[in-house]
Amino acid sequence: ERQGVVSGALDYAAARGDCMYVGSAPDRGSSVQFRRALHDYTQMESDYLDAVKSFASKFQAAKVYGALYAPWIQVNDPLATGSNPTLFVPPDGHLLGVYARTEQERGIWKAPAGQQSVVRGCLNVAASFSDIQHTVLVREARVNGVRSLPGQGITVSASRTLSTDTR
Question: How is residue 37 annotated by DSSP?
Fold first, then answer.
């Protein structure tokens, strides 16, 4: 289960003290196993935001070596055929690419977020949070949003960890 994986990975990172876990919140609710289009989702975005907040709250503490991202992203599915060969997947793999590119282009000290943090290969996001919802996602859930912003593409819009102690 996702919660066990996240807990185990965060515990491992904390024990080492020299690495961090990068993961994703669960996907938005759907009635189909493989979500290929936005209309496959049945859960309202506001309910999804509440679910992400609830999930992330289980991992918050004063010092946490990890970050979560939401929502899931739509990518081309190399195995699919037919009229819609896409698939929604967890964003973590693509986001690690953003981490690597940020380190190469701007340095390890720069947060992997903002206008230059375009998620390459991403076609869409599973939920389009409003500015207010995104603020709740980041400030209350401590989850980083992946957003489609006009003129910027799909980018990482925050750089928080699950730590509640900001010192």
Answer: S
